[in-house]
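Morning run. Coffee first, then this:
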Amino acid sequence: MKKHLILAALAIAIPAAAEDWVSLFDGKTMTGWKNAYDWGKIEVVNGEVHLTGDKKFFVVTEKTYGDFIFEGDILLPEGQANSGFMFRAHVEKNKVFGYQAEVDGDAKRKWSGGLYDEGRRMWFISPIKGNAESEAAFRARAVEAFKRNDWNTYRIECRGKSLKIFVNGVLTTDVEDDKDASGVIAIQHHGEKGQTYKFRNLRIQELK
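And here it is:
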């Protein structure tokens, strides 16, 4: 009996096997993705997705996801920049809205890893914009996680109402919200003219 309990405990502790992950980007083409907008340039360069444009746009997965673990790397351009990984998001013509894991290029604000509700409630929970206590608590747990001039690895975990965001292994957001149960994954160009946003190592593990 003890042996069975030990084996069960080990099974729980063992992380997901590599084969459980599904790559969302093959490093060569944009198969499985589409531009939700009538503008924006998408290139695949040396195993990276490069987004360039003069206006904000999102590139979205053709498939929708409900409960999952997603991981992806992003490199912001120098200067003014802002981006995000959308998840459980919704698509209309020239519009994407919903949950977004914030990628903040502002060296003073430092809200990377926050949860933004694009096109709806905006900064409604992590942090709550304008709420000094909420903003201070967010910075306390997240301020050192993001590397402004380097690649950053994001991890998003969605299990029912539970939404978690990690930046370089640091848990920056851990909240519950039931606004959306499923939707697309998306990567963002914020609209800075001529700037190029870079993404790589996009993968997902669907949870049952």
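The longest strand covers residues 82-92. Good start to the day.
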